[in-house]
């Protein structure tokens, strides 16, 4: 009588299967990091954190592709080259994800001081001769001006920002009156975002009461 032999899986096959699982797990973690962290950091206006999260995501993708390729049963020249190209593309994506958000924020955000050329006085208030104009990581541009008010209330103001480079004038306003202690800083929100290069071209600010 012939003994029945039960086939067993080679240790190498099981190891390769678990290696592929580990590779897909790395890619899955990268997806989670990208979805749950980098997107939220971008919305929150934290470019450095978003850059770290984006670079980490792409590095996880690169590592996952390399691990899967190493355990792939098809180890032909074309398949090996495809896995290497995929891993290299993800690694280059990590570099881009780590640099671009910080570079964009550095080029578009900033603060300048501009002259208030007219509208500095009104009924019961007086405004300083300069204003601080800033563009932040939330893609908002705001003006801060110093107001001295005799009735302790900051007036409604509309600021028209003019530019020397041909950019169309932009209007900024404060949305509500606030109580101030005679002298205070009042913030005006602008209708559109102005990048740092545009802030440098401000030729003057005209104030009025809407």
End-to-end separation in angstroms reads: 105 Å
Number of DSSP E strands: 8
Structural class: alpha+beta
Q: How much helix, percentage-wise, in residues?
A: 40-55%
Give the DSSP E fraction (strand runs of 2 or more residues): 25-35%
The count of helical stretches stands at 4
Mean pLDDT: 81
What topology emerges from the helices and strands here?
Blueprint: H1 11-43, H2 47-71, H3 77-108, E1 110-118, E2 121-122, E3 125-135, E4 141-149, E5 158-163, E6 170-173, E7 183-190, H4 196-199, E8 202-208
Parallel strand pairs: 1-8
Antiparallel strand pairs: 1-3, 2-3, 3-4, 4-7, 5-6, 5-8, 6-7
Helix pairs in contact: 1-2, 2-3
Notes on the structure:
The chain is of the alpha+beta class. The protein has 4 helices and 8 strands; from the N terminus they run H-H-H-E-E-E-E-E-E-E-H-E. It has helices at 11-43, 47-71, 77-108, 196-199, and strands spanning 110-118, 121-122, 125-135, 141-149, 158-163, 170-173, 183-190, 202-208. Helix 1 (11-43) runs antiparallel to helix 2 (47-71) and helix 2 packs antiparallel against helix 3. The longest helix is centred in the N-terminal third of the chain and has 33 residues, at 11-43. The mean pLDDT is 81.
